[in-house]
Design brief:
By secondary structure, the chain is mainly beta. The chain is about 5% helix and about 55% strand. It has a 22-stranded antiparallel β-barrel. It has a 5-stranded mixed beta sheet with strand order 4-10-11-8-9. The chain has a 3-stranded antiparallel beta sheet with strand order 1-2-3, with helices on one face.
């Protein structure tokens, strides 16, 4: 029976844990997060400082748990690839991580300004990241990743109105352990990571981990012959755990990150005779020499720097105190991050000034948080989690673009201070029937400054605002029988007000004040089941969520220059079904899968930006400014179907060796990256990965050969309509014409490699 639990833990990644139970994690919890119980075959998660385990099938919240082994099997080594293993999650990359978007169940925040939080929060070891871009890097030293779907504002705060991605890293252990991994591919990616953990003495333990990865990219810059669309990252993390007494434990940690990326967005479509900015002679063969523009193009021509350079560090102190049967938990953190971004704005090597238009900026952030929780015993019929939270965050953004067209030169700052109190009660008032009541009350103050240096007379603005908000969660759970659980819940979500600090900020925006808060109301019902002696798991969740005053990015085009502007777009409804299953077919054969059916629609969006080249016949009302009505339109970046599946066969080869045969499949139906824009339409696609290797039967080491994107299927991680930079002729005010660029995924082409890992 133990092998079944191992299989489900290793491959399925299907787990459910209440948010309240997450607040009971001990400092060592992530290291034990998906550990089997030998005598009853239950799949369990750690919930308390005493490491009490419970069957994750018995708790009523939609949480997908992803293990390191599952990440390896699916070829996921970077944050932006998590959508491959979590069907409800879609991640859209861009020329830099700040412009990327993370959405759950079709809901995310498409915002490029500072101080605008995502609708999907990201935490590391329980501490939120101030800047989502900080997450867009490798996934080293991961013990477990949880994807919590739907509004999580009651316990996780205002940046989780659509969900939460919770990353937990390796914790100190009582015994000495070493883990290490090496990777190399045939397209010149290489890297490795390791972690060492163990005791220093009876009361002091440690973890030290480090990772490095380097990949040149899958796009060639014809200007200098170098590969781009790649990345290089170095990260380190250290932890010290001190057991000051049997009831008091301190865990201090620090991390450091340094890396860079290169940008290459190939043109995949361009109208014949198109002229860059309408300039005579600047045709495709001149500005993009030696490049064949077609859907398979992997070449760019950039004569200016394009990419990012980033670094950051953070510290955290976790305090666990047991007072009788209760636990007091404290989390104190500080984080600092900076990313410099560079863009070859014209994306060409055109002769003259029009081929040297650049965009240069920086994102700087700092965040301090303090959280204190009071937790009751997790085994009582009446359980509670109470807490208070404080956060202070600041951002800076210098930005400059030019010198020929789309001119911009500004400096902005943004800050917020948040205090909140939250709590959740779970009461089994009748045997096998548990009610949940949770709530959060918060106050937030936001402020900003904006200096526009591009005006004839530089102008500056500043302002501040304050807001109070409450959210709540109600739930009912019924354990119908040992392996069948039914639940239903109603929850509200909230994401706070903010300012639109982007190019084009003016007196009108200043007078308008902050963007209104985004709110949501979510209904869920689900069933959690296991069959055949728990050899098979099958879970289903139905959800229906309404968003009001959804904060989303639109495009404001003035004199041929497209600027990004945040607005309250109106309403959105997202509903659907989520399926998760895992089965042990034979002792050494396991299959697992997950799928999401999604219907995400704008319920109210009467005045939206027209996409480039949109005509009146296509719905663009030709007024000043032009607009379209997106009410009733499917939301962007919201595929109707998304699914993943994996299979693992591990037959014994000798008394000490097992074979490893793994296969995975990822499917995504069609979607639009910009509403209704045919130039940003991504058709449906499937990706298959396979691997074969050997491992020690105790899993102390493993060597694997793998092939990702086995059938060499091409798709795009993002599509950008840049028609506003190209005209049909050099005549003044000539119409724009088709020009479309793509952001290529890591597996745009089939590639192979080798992995070697050890675990002692």
């Amino acid at each position: 029976m133990r092998t079944l639990a191992l299989a489900a833990s290793f491959l399925s990644g299907v787990a459910h844990a209440t948010a309240a139970e997450e607040h009971r994690e001990a400092a060592t919890a992530p290291a034990q997060a998906a550990k089997p119980v030998k005598d009853d075959n239950e799949i369990i998660v750690t919930t308390t400082a005493q490491k009490r385990f419970e069957n994750i099938q018995n708790v009523p919240l939609a949480v997908q748990v992803v293990t390191p082994a599952q990440l390896e099997a699916q070829g996921v080594r970077h944050f932006q690839d998590l959508g491959k293993v979590a069907p409800s999650l879609t991640i859209r990359t861009a020329e830099n991580p700040v412009n990327s978007n993370v959405s759950l169940r079709g809901v995310g925040t498409y915002a490029f300004g500072i101080g605008v939080e995502s609708s999907v929060a990201v935490t590391v070891d329980g501490v939120p990241l101030a800047f989502q871009a900080r997450a867009f890097t490798d996934l080293p030293d991961v013990a477990m990743i949880e994807v919590l779907r739907g509004p999580q504002s009651t316990l996780y705060g205002k940046a989780a109105s659509a969900g939460l991605i919770k990353i937990m890293t390796t914790q100190p252990t009582n015994d000495f352990h070493v883990k290490a991994n090496l990777l190399a591919t045939d397209d010149k990616e290489y890297g490795g990571n390791f972690s060492v953990t163990g005791p220093i003495n009876e009361t002091l333990g440690y973890v030290f981990s480090a990772s490095y990865s380097n990949w040149g990219g899958n796009v060639r810059n014809v200007f200098d012959g170098k590969d781009v669309n790649g990345r290089e990252t170095l990260s380190t993390r250290g932890k010290l755990k001190w057991k000051a007494s049997p009831d008091v434990v301190f865990t201090a940690s620090a991390n450091y990150l340094n890396g860079n990326t290169t940008v290459g967005r190939p043109f995949i479509r361009m109208a014949p005779g198109a002229l860059l900015r309408g300039q005579p002679g600047l045709t495709a063969d001149v500005i993009l020499p030696g490049i064949k523009i077609d859907p398979l193009n992997q070449k760019v021509a950039n004569n200016d720097r394009a990419g990012t350079k980033y670094w950051g560090w953070g510290t955290m102190l976790r305090t666990d105190i047991n007072i009788g049967k209760m636990q007091v938990l404290g989390l104190t953190s500080y984080d600092k991050f900076r990313m410099d971004d560079y863009v070859d704005h014209d994306d060409t090597v055109a002769p003259g000034p029009y081929g040297r238009n650049t965009q240069v900026g920086a994102f700087k952030s700092h965040l301090f948080t303090q959280e204190v929780r009071l937790l009751s015993p997790g085994t009582d019929a009446f359980r509670y989690a109470l807490g208070v939270y404080y956060a202070n965050v600041g951002f800076q953004r210098p930005f400059k673009r030019g010198p020929v067209f789309s001119l911009a030169d500004w400096f902005a700052t943004s800050g917020s201070r948040q205090i909140a109190a939250f709590g959740q009660i779970d009461w089994e008032f009748v045997k096998n029937l548990t009610a949940t009541v949770g709530g959060r009350a918060q106050n937030e103050r936001v402020k900003y400054s904006f200096l526009d240096k591009n005006l004839a007379v530089p102008a500056s603005w500043s302002g501040h605002a304050s807001d109070n908000a409450t959210t709540y969660r109600l739930g009912l759970q019924y354990q119908a029988m040992r392996d069948v659980m039914l639940f239903g819940s109603y929850a509200t979500g909230y994401k706070g007000q903010t300012y639109d600090l982007t190019t084009g900020f003016n007196q009108n925006r200043a007078d308008a004040g902050p963007i209104r808060p985004e709110t949501s109301k979510d209904k869920e019902i689900g069933v959690r089941t296991q069959f055949f002696g728990r050899r098979m798991t099958f879970n289903v969740t139905y959800f229906d969520t309404n968003y009001k005053d959804l904060q989303a990015q639109t495009i404001e085009t003035i004199n041929g220059t497209s600027n990004y502007r945040l607005t309250n777009v109106g309403g959105l409804n997202t509903k659907g079904l989520e399926f998760e299953s895992a089965a042990r077919i034979l002792h050494d054969l396991t299959i697992s899968g997950a799928a999401t059916y999604l219907d995400a629609t704008y319920t109210s969006f009467p005045v939206a930006q027209c996409y480039p080249l949109q005509t009146a016949a296509q719905g663009c009302v030709q007024s000043k400014p032009a607009y379209q009505n997106l009410t009733g339109t499917r939301a962007i970046q919201a595929p109707e179907w998304k699914a993943s599946a994996s299979i693992e066969y591990t037959p014994a080869l000798t008394e000490k060796l097992n074979g490893v045969f793994q296969g995975s499949w990822q499917y995504q139906s069609s979607l639009n990256y910009v509403a209704r824009d045919p130039e940003t339409f991504q058709p449906a696609y499937s990706i298959f990965n396979v691997s074969v290797g050997v491992r020690d039967h105790k899993r102390r080491w493993e060597a694997t050969l793998f092939v990702n994107n086995l059938f060499d299927k091409q798709y795009y991680q993002s599509l950008v309509n840049t028609a506003s930079n190209f005209n049909t002729s050099s005549v003044a005010n000539a119409p724009n014409t088709i020009a479309t660029q793509a952001v290529l995924p890591r597996d745009f082409r089939r590639y192979a490699g080798i992995r070697f890992g050890m675990n002692y």
